[in-house]
Amino acid sequence: MTAIEIYTRPGCGYCTAAKSLLTRKNAAFTELSVATDPAYRAQMYDRAGDGSTFPQIFIGTTHVGGCDELYALDRAGKLDGLLAGEKAPS
Protein backbone atom coordinates (compact mmCIF):
# COMPACT_ATOMS: atom_id res chain seq x y z
CA MET A 1 0.00 0.00 0.00
CA THR A 2 1.10 3.57 -0.63
CA ALA A 3 2.65 5.55 2.23
CA ILE A 4 0.26 8.11 3.70
CA GLU A 5 1.29 11.03 5.90
CA ILE A 6 -1.12 13.41 7.57
CA TYR A 7 -0.05 16.53 9.43
CA THR A 8 -2.40 17.25 12.33
CA ARG A 9 -2.89 19.53 15.32
CA PRO A 10 -4.81 18.89 18.55
CA GLY A 11 -8.49 19.82 18.61
CA CYS A 12 -8.80 19.91 14.83
CA GLY A 13 -12.15 18.50 13.71
CA TYR A 14 -11.00 18.36 10.09
CA CYS A 15 -7.98 16.30 11.18
CA THR A 16 -10.28 13.90 12.99
CA ALA A 17 -12.59 13.59 9.97
CA ALA A 18 -9.70 12.94 7.59
CA LYS A 19 -8.22 10.28 9.85
CA SER A 20 -11.68 8.72 10.19
CA LEU A 21 -12.09 8.39 6.42
CA LEU A 22 -8.63 6.87 6.02
CA THR A 23 -9.38 4.44 8.85
CA ARG A 24 -12.68 3.42 7.21
CA LYS A 25 -10.68 2.75 4.03
CA ASN A 26 -8.32 0.53 6.04
CA ALA A 27 -5.50 2.80 4.94
CA ALA A 28 -2.56 2.83 7.33
CA PHE A 29 -1.20 6.33 7.81
CA THR A 30 1.52 8.11 9.72
CA GLU A 31 0.20 10.97 11.81
CA LEU A 32 2.62 13.86 12.18
CA SER A 33 1.18 15.86 15.07
CA VAL A 34 2.60 19.29 15.84
CA ALA A 35 1.73 18.55 19.49
CA THR A 36 4.25 15.70 19.43
CA ASP A 37 6.93 17.58 17.50
CA PRO A 38 6.59 21.30 16.74
CA ALA A 39 9.12 20.90 13.89
CA TYR A 40 6.39 19.12 11.92
CA ARG A 41 4.71 22.50 11.34
CA ALA A 42 7.74 23.87 9.44
CA GLN A 43 8.08 20.58 7.60
CA MET A 44 4.41 20.76 6.56
CA TYR A 45 4.82 24.34 5.31
CA ASP A 46 7.89 23.30 3.31
CA ARG A 47 5.92 20.52 1.64
CA ALA A 48 2.47 22.09 1.30
CA GLY A 49 3.21 25.81 1.18
CA ASP A 50 3.08 28.58 3.74
CA GLY A 51 -0.37 29.40 4.94
CA SER A 52 -1.57 25.82 4.66
CA THR A 53 -4.21 24.74 7.13
CA PHE A 54 -4.56 21.49 9.07
CA PRO A 55 -4.65 18.75 8.13
CA GLN A 56 -2.34 18.39 5.17
CA ILE A 57 -2.40 14.96 3.57
CA PHE A 58 0.19 13.29 1.37
CA ILE A 59 -0.46 9.98 -0.33
CA GLY A 60 2.75 8.71 -1.84
CA THR A 61 4.24 11.67 -3.67
CA THR A 62 0.84 13.30 -4.17
CA HIS A 63 -0.12 16.29 -2.03
CA VAL A 64 -3.86 15.75 -1.63
CA GLY A 65 -4.44 18.91 0.39
CA GLY A 66 -6.79 19.01 3.35
CA CYS A 67 -9.84 17.19 4.59
CA ASP A 68 -12.22 18.68 2.01
CA GLU A 69 -9.98 17.58 -0.86
CA LEU A 70 -9.66 14.07 0.61
CA TYR A 71 -13.44 13.69 0.83
CA ALA A 72 -13.87 15.15 -2.67
CA LEU A 73 -11.51 12.50 -4.06
CA ASP A 74 -13.58 9.84 -2.31
CA ARG A 75 -16.88 11.21 -3.65
CA ALA A 76 -15.38 11.28 -7.17
CA GLY A 77 -14.35 7.62 -6.83
CA LYS A 78 -10.64 8.47 -7.13
CA LEU A 79 -9.39 7.95 -3.58
CA ASP A 80 -9.28 4.14 -3.64
CA GLY A 81 -7.05 4.14 -6.72
CA LEU A 82 -4.72 6.69 -5.19
CA LEU A 83 -4.50 4.63 -2.01
CA ALA A 84 -3.67 1.59 -4.13
CA GLY A 85 -0.75 3.43 -5.70
CA GLU A 86 -2.30 4.41 -9.00
CA LYS A 87 -1.33 7.66 -10.68
CA ALA A 88 -2.72 10.76 -9.04
CA PRO A 89 -6.06 11.89 -10.50
CA SER A 90 -6.12 15.01 -12.64
Topology, please?
Elements: E1 4-8, H1 13-24, E2 30-33, H2 39-48, E3 56-59, E4 62-65, H3 67-75, H4 79-83
Can you walk through the features of this model?
This protein has a single domain, classed as 3-Layer(aba) Sandwich (Glutaredoxin). The protein has helices spanning 13-24, 39-48, 67-75, 79-83, and strands spanning 4-8, 30-33, 56-59, 62-65. A 4-stranded mixed sheet has the order 2-1-3-4, sandwiched between helices. It has 4 helices and 4 strands, in the order βαβαββαα. The model has no long low-confidence stretch (mean pLDDT 93). Helices cover 40% and strands 19% of the residues. The chain is globular, with a radius of gyration of 12 Å. β1 (4-8), α1 and β2 form a beta-alpha-beta unit.
Task: Describe the structure using short key phrases.
four-stranded mixed sheet; 40% helix; Glutaredoxin; alpha+beta; globular; 90 residues; single chain
In short:
Pfam families: Glutaredoxin. The protein has helices spanning 13-24, 39-48, 67-75, 79-83; strands spanning 4-8, 30-33, 56-59, 62-65.
